[in-house]
Amino acid sequence: MIAEPKLYGRARKTPTQVRRGPHAPSRVDYDGTATAGGLTPAPERSGMSESTATADLITMGECMVELSAREPLRQAPSFTRGFGGDALNLAAMAAQLGTRAAYLTAVADDPFGEYLRNAWRGTRVDVSLVQDVDGYNGLYLMAALQTGEREIIYYREGSAAAQMTPEMLPREALRNVRLFHTSSITQAISESSRRAVRAAIETVK
Question: Which of 8, 74, 88, 93 has the least CB density, counted as fewest CB within 10 Å?
Answer without folding.
Answer: 74
